[in-house]
């Protein structure tokens, strides 16, 4: 039976053209390709069963940016299929290699010259009046955000059943270490090394300036509620799927038992990616 390779491609001319050449190259090697086009849809709540990748995939190559990678992670779901990001243009935080090294990286993977780093995801359960109305997973972050014209949200937060605080803010971000370099970073949160076992809680523009980002163990359960009449408040997971929430809802967030299997290649260094993305000079004074 032919080895199956997943290929998730950004809906962009350059990525599609490269994917066409890469697919032909893989086919000539006797491999079977399952290809999926990716685009960034408007955020909406999904209904019914979402499409899942075949369980038989040996690995998944993602040709595009971080948004395309996140859509590929959702496509894989809780299946433990190794995945690798291939970045076009600037270096992406979720990319392991670049366009010009794609075939070199593919040869290494097909010859099993790679390792896998397990990166945590978050389980998200939304209950309305004690009845579950939605269940999602997030690889980067879970974001509670108010609309442009909504007043400050009051977000009551508990950690393992213990009251933490009522955040009065534009919103709240619950992020994984992987997601610490995404929206949380823009909101003033710290960068967490990918293998650090923690969950990051970052308020967005808090009314109380002493409400600072907080890192808690990845073993905890975080419970969130809106504590007053609320309108135009949205919960989103990885910017890919969202649902409107109000004061009737309880959001329960915890570590998923199904991590993402990130392919790592020899000579690739996380700090090199970090310095390139953040444009750190690395010079000494």
UniProtKB/TrEMBL annotation:
<protein>
    <recommendedName>
        <fullName>NAD kinase</fullName>
        <ecNumber>2.7.1.23</ecNumber>
    </recommendedName>
</protein>
<dbReference type="Pfam" id="PF01513">
    <property type="entry name" value="NAD_kinase"/>
</dbReference>
<feature type="binding site">
    <location>
        <begin position="140"/>
        <end position="141"/>
    </location>
    <ligand>
        <name>NAD(+)</name>
    </ligand>
</feature>
<dbReference type="InterPro" id="IPR016064">
    <property type="entry name" value="NAD/diacylglycerol_kinase_sf"/>
</dbReference>
<keyword id="KW-0521">NADP</keyword>
<dbReference type="InterPro" id="IPR002504">
    <property type="entry name" value="NADK"/>
</dbReference>
<keyword id="KW-0067">ATP-binding</keyword>
<dbReference type="GO" id="GO:0051287">
    <property type="term" value="F:NAD binding"/>
</dbReference>
<dbReference type="GO" id="GO:0005524">
    <property type="term" value="F:ATP binding"/>
</dbReference>
<dbReference type="InterPro" id="IPR017438">
    <property type="entry name" value="ATP-NAD_kinase_N"/>
</dbReference>
<dbReference type="GO" id="GO:0003951">
    <property type="term" value="F:NAD+ kinase activity"/>
</dbReference>
<keyword id="KW-0963">Cytoplasm</keyword>
<feature type="binding site">
    <location>
        <position position="240"/>
    </location>
    <ligand>
        <name>NAD(+)</name>
    </ligand>
</feature>
<comment type="similarity">
    <text>Belongs to the NAD kinase family.</text>
</comment>
<dbReference type="GO" id="GO:0006741">
    <property type="term" value="P:NADP+ biosynthetic process"/>
</dbReference>
<dbReference type="InterPro" id="IPR017437">
    <property type="entry name" value="ATP-NAD_kinase_PpnK-typ_C"/>
</dbReference>
<keyword id="KW-0418">Kinase</keyword>
<feature type="binding site">
    <location>
        <position position="151"/>
    </location>
    <ligand>
        <name>NAD(+)</name>
    </ligand>
</feature>
<feature type="active site" description="Proton acceptor">
    <location>
        <position position="66"/>
    </location>
</feature>
<dbReference type="GO" id="GO:0046872">
    <property type="term" value="F:metal ion binding"/>
</dbReference>
<feature type="binding site">
    <location>
        <begin position="66"/>
        <end position="67"/>
    </location>
    <ligand>
        <name>NAD(+)</name>
    </ligand>
</feature>
<dbReference type="Pfam" id="PF20143">
    <property type="entry name" value="NAD_kinase_C"/>
</dbReference>
<keyword id="KW-0547">Nucleotide-binding</keyword>
<comment type="function">
    <text>Involved in the regulation of the intracellular balance of NAD and NADP, and is a key enzyme in the biosynthesis of NADP. Catalyzes specifically the phosphorylation on 2'-hydroxyl of the adenosine moiety of NAD to yield NADP.</text>
</comment>
<keyword id="KW-0808">Transferase</keyword>
<feature type="binding site">
    <location>
        <position position="168"/>
    </location>
    <ligand>
        <name>NAD(+)</name>
    </ligand>
</feature>
<keyword id="KW-0520">NAD</keyword>
<dbReference type="GO" id="GO:0019674">
    <property type="term" value="P:NAD+ metabolic process"/>
</dbReference>
<dbReference type="GO" id="GO:0005737">
    <property type="term" value="C:cytoplasm"/>
</dbReference>
<feature type="binding site">
    <location>
        <position position="170"/>
    </location>
    <ligand>
        <name>NAD(+)</name>
    </ligand>
</feature>
């Amino acid at each position: 039976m032919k080895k199956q390779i997943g290929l998730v491609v950004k809906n962009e001319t350059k990525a599609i053209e490269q994917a066409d050449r890469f697919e032909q190259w893989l086919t000539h090697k006797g491999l079977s390709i399952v290809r999926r086009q990716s685009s960034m849809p408007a955020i909406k709540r999904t209904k019914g069963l979402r499409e899942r990748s075949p369980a038989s995939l040996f690995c998944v190559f993602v040709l595009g940016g971080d948004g395309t990678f996140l859509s590929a992670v959702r496509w894989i779901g809780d299946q433990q299929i190794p995945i690798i990001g291939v970045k076009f243009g600037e270096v992406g935080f979720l990319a392991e290699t670049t366009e010009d090294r794609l075939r070199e990286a593919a040869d290494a993977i097909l010859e099993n010259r790679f390792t896998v780093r397990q990166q945590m995801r978050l389980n998200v359960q939304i209950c309305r009046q004690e009845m579950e109305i939605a269940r999602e997973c997030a690889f980067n972050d879970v974001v509670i955000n108010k609309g442009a014209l909504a007043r400050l949200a009051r977000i009551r937060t508990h950690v393992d059943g213990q009251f933490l605080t009522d955040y009065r803010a534009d919103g709240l971000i619950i992020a994984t270490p992987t997601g610490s370099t995404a929206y949380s970073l823009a909101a003033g949160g710290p960068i967490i090394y990918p293998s650090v076992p923690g969950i990051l809680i970052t308020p967005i523009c808090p009314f109380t300036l002493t409400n600072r980002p907080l890192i808690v163990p990845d073993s905890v359960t975080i419970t969130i509620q809106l504590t007053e009449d609320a309108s135009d408040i949205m919960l989103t997971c990885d910017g890919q799927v969202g649902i409107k929430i109000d004061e009737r809802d309880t959001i329960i967030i915890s570590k998923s038992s199904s991590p993402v299997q990130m392919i790592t290649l020899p000579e690739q260094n996380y700090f090199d990616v970090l310095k390139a993305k953040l444009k750190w000079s690395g010079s000494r004074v």
